[in-house]
User: Fold Response regulator from Splendidivirga corallicola.
Amino acid sequence: MSGTRKVLVAEDSSVIQNLTKKILQFQNYQITAVKNGKQVIDKIEKEEFDVILMDINMPIMDGMECARKIRAMDNAQKSQTPIIAITGNAQNYSMDDFKEAGINEYLPKPLNFDNLVEMVKKYA
Assistant:
């Protein structure tokens, strides 16, 4: 791995956010955490990330809308940042819905942290 990989975690649950941060930091990822989709857009406009972990159900802007906004960005590198959805309501969406929004993969809640680490490694 060349350099530290940067992961943006978008999750409105502090418990899930903190667990995810600790597990990924233990794997030597640099973590930035935000609570809603608007903050994701603000962060990605200022910084580049190797992968985005995004809760689907967040206040202000949900993960689906946020993914569409990222994919519509003018900066080609930023618009192609891999997005992994995290959701407790996967049954409300099909993989086609996620793909249409520009989401690469999804992880169901409750999170299996081994799967989380593997998926982040795959995309970062």
